[in-house]
Amino acid sequence: MSFDVLVWYCKPVANGIWAKETDSSFGAYTPCAIESADCISSVVLFFLCAYRLWLVRMDHKVRRFQLRSKYYNYILILLGSCCAAEPLLRLFMGISIFNLDPETDLAPFEMVSLSIEALAWISIIVMNLVETNVYIKEFRWYVRFGVIYVLVGELVILKFVVSMQSFYSRFTLYIYYSSVIYQILFGSLLLVHLPHLCPFPGYVPLRSEFIDDNNGETILGADHICPERYASILSRISFGWITPLLRRGYHRPITEKDVWKLDSWDKTETLSARFQRCWAEECRRKKPWLLRALNCSLGGRLVVIFVSLWDHCCLIVS
Questions:
Q1: Burial per residue of 39-58, b for 16 or more beta-carbon CB atoms within 10 angstroms, e otherwise
Q2: CB-based contact 56:136 (threshold 8 Å)
Q3: Distance (Å, whole) CA 142 – CA 288
Q4: Where are the domains of the chain?
């Protein structure tokens, strides 16, 4: 049943062009694999933008600024609009860059990917629109690296498209190449964007009780437990919870006193005891399954591990 769902989602064509013309280990599933990996980068970018927007709207501890000049942001908004228009155009017109065989409809994986890609770029546009009025320095580099992550995935797809360009129509190639150019321009301009700022009029940030007055960093050290467990989902995805430690290491060498205590849930004896208990329960079944025992002992962290491994494997194999 699960395999039937995969076939429906990917719509592989046995002995089709992708299976014959590429050296990928995925064979006919190559389009689905590389597009799914690229889709993950769009999801990451969307959540990074959403979190930055949340900081602007809800976090009163961050310092707010105004842009001295908004023209640069207007250019970014224009390029971002072009980037968002391409997946929407392909989605509504049914233009596929993966359907090289005589099929008429977009495969479900491509429809999902185009929708998520458009949503990610729309979130970028909204973020830049908000920044024309209120700008914050927090989390901006995470968003920029998220855009780079998207560009890396897009370049992987571009490599396949270039190698198979004889099978595409000129219009399809024009649409896709234009989108890649817009994305590269947007990423390049965003990466070097260091705006001139002035304080936001009438705004005084609230000071956090967890801020150290000496260096403005979250208080760290051997007397504190690793904050990963209580970090938000976005903070875990972007490793934002470790930023204060990295910032301190940038200014001076890190010593043993700077490092957090290991949380009880990450200690060897805790993990070992939990796995042994889950494995003992699993052995009572007729067909014990190691993966099920790992899921029982690790929980949601196992899903994060597999998603990361899948993403990296797709990029390496392709």
A1: bbbbbbbbbbbebbbebbee
A2: yes
A3: 42
A4: 2-199, 267-317
Structure-token pair, residue 311: 């993403």
Q: Where are the beta strands (DSSP E) in the chain?
A: 65-67, 197-199
Coil/strand/helix, residue 30: helix
Instruction: Please name the residue that has the structure tokens 């989108």.
Output: 179
Question: What is the distance between the alpha carbons of residues 280 and 275, in angstroms, rounded to a whole number?
Answer: 8
Please count the residues of the chain: 318
Q: For residues 37 and 102, is the Cβ–Cβ distance under 8 A?
A: no
The pTM score is 0.64
Residue 225: both structure tokens together = 């437990």
Q: What pLDDT digit, counting tens, does each position of 111-134 carry?
A: 899 999 999 999 999 999 999 988
Q: Give Cβ neighbours of residue 213 (< 8 Å, ≥ 6 apart).
A: none
d(CA 94, CA 75): 29
